[in-house]
Amino acid sequence: MSPRVHASATPGDARPRPRWLRQARAQARFGLDHLLAILASLLFVYPLVWLLSASLKPAWQIYRQPLALIPDGATAEVYRRIFTTTPFPTYLQNSLVYAVGGTLLTIAVAMLAAYGLSRHEFRGKQTAMLLILTVQLMPALISAIPVYILMQRLGLFNSQAGIVLLYGAVSIPFGVWVLKGYLDTIPKELDESAWIDGAGKLLTLWRILVPVIVPGLASLFIILFVGKWNEFAMASILLRDTSLFPLTVGTYTLLGPDESDFRLTAAASLINVVPILLVFLGLQRYLIAGLTAGSVKQ
Question: Is 5 contained in some domain?
Answer without folding.
Answer: no
